[in-house]
Design a protein that fits this description.
By secondary structure, the chain is mainly alpha-helical. The chain is built from 15 helices and no strands. The protein has one domain.
């Protein structure tokens, strides 16, 4: 792995050489490490095969114990097996879905964002500007800031001839020149220290953070076959989610660091070029060492803040995804259709102590209860229909009786006169 990454160290290309070397090592670590773990000759493949067998055996035990809620359990197991096998053994799919997205996704996103904003967003442009800025800091450290031009007399603070001339002018002038030389030497030492600290902070805040994110991403990608099979089990699924979240964290942090570096270079590169041009023309640059150190420190803290913010965003996103998945699972598998109270409460402690015969009988009883409930529902609906029919018949009979009542009264009241006389005689 190290043989494929050339180490090209030179003072004129220190930053670019380090960044190219670290990027090459990170990519080699991610690809070669994955292929070493997922290769056919690797002993870790036996561990993956054993985990797959355990997952299928546990599913069969749950099926015999009556703890399954429906065919969706089998579909979920098949999906988990497919994801685990794909991520743990297939380098082509892993490279397309995980490796390229983690290693090259931030670069493409930064290029898109940088095209809309006036910053140095492209990685090649950033590497070149970082190298130019580092060379400008080195040149400024060699040239100094020109404090001798700012002082009276344009004399160097530790110039022996000036000190000797001051001593000849009189005893009162010599101590003054000696004190002035001490003050000037302190200024030069403070400027040199400020420039050294500024360059150190600049390198750590840019090259250090970029190299750290790339190497962490490469290590996580190399451990893909280790974490992929953990998705099969509920107890270890959080570890797989943590690994996936760490990859997302490196991506978000890399994007934030690149944007912070682009903003820093957009201001620092031309500013340093102007200061170096002044010094080469023997003109003073004022308090530039302190300003450069403060500016580099501020943007180093901003880059570090983006790393912390990316971790917080990733953690919040994982929480949202977990809560959403729990809601989806709860809606797909409601507790009122679960076959046993232990499964409905989300615990298997009571069912684990029971025999398989009792578990099968519980499943049969639950099935019978569901059938009885369905039959009772149909019976109640038929009873309601019969009652509605009887009420309709009663209503129709009442209407017919009301309609026939005048005719019956009329026939009952018609009696002939001869019949009435006959009834009196008799």
């Amino acid at each position: 792995m190290a043989g494929g990454c050339a180490v090209a160290y030179a003072q004129e290309a220190f930053v670019s050489g380090v960044l190219h070397y670290v990027d090459c090592q990170a990519q080699s670590l991610g690809s070669s490490g994955y292929q070493a773990l997922a290769g056919a000759q690797s002993g870790f493949m036996l561990v993956i095969a054993g985990l797959l067998i355990v997952a299928v055996a546990l599913f069969g035990y749950r099926m015999l114990a009556g703890r399954l809620t429906g065919p969706m359990d089998a579909v979920g197991l098949m999906l988990k097996l497919a994801v685990a096998l794909t991520l743990a053994t297939n380098w082509t799919a892993y490279q397309t879905v995980i490796y390229d997205v983690t290693m090259r996704g931030p670069t493409e996103l930064i290029s898109v964002i940088g095209s809309r904003v006036d910053i140095a967003a492209r990685p090649d442009m950033q590497v070149e500007m970082l190298q130019q800025t580092d060379l400008a800091l080195i040149d400024l450290g060699k040239l100094g800031v020109g404090r001798k031009e700012l002082l009276v007399g344009n004399a160097a603070p530790s110039d022996p001839q000036s000190l000797a001339q001051g001593a000849q002018n009189g005893p009162s002038q010599a101590p003054f020149n000696a004190a002035l030389a001490i003050d000037r030497s302190l200024d030069f030492a403070a400027d040199a220290n400020a420039l050294r600290f500024a360059r150190t902070i600049f390198l750590v805040g840019t090259v250090g953070l970029v190299a750290a994110m790339r190497l962490i991403a490469g290590l996580l990608l190399a451990l893909g076959p280790v974490f992929a099979p953990l998705i099969l089990f509920h107890a270890t699924r959080s570890s797989f989610a943590a690994w996936f979240g760490a990859l997302a964290w490196t991506m978000i942090a890399s994007i934030g660091i690149a944007i912070s570096i682009g903003l820093e270079l957009a201001f620092l590169d031309p500013w340093l070029a102007g200061i170096v041009a002044l010094r080469r023309a023997d003109l003073p640059s004022g308090a530039s060492p302190t300003e450069i150190m403060a500016f580099s420190l501020v943007f180093a803290l901003i880059s570090l803040g983006t790393v912390v913010t990316a971790a917080m965003v990733t953690r919040m996103g994982s929480t949202i995804v977990r809560d959403t998945s729990n809601v989806i699972v709860a809606s797909a598998f409601p507790t009122d259709v679960l076959p046993s109270p232990a499964l409905a409460e989300g615990t298997y402690s009571a069912a684990a102590n029971r025999s398989r015969a009792l578990a099968v009988s519980d499943a049969a009883v639950a099935l019978q209860r569901r059938e009885v409930a369905h039959f009772s529902t149909e019976t109640q609906s038929s009873i309601r229909q019969t009652q509605q029919r009887s009420e309709t018949l009663k209503t129709m009979e009442a209407e017919l009786s009301v309609a026939a009542r005048p005719f019956s009264n009329r026939l009952h009241n018609r009696v002939s006169a001869g019949a009435q006389r006959r009834d009196r005689i008799s």
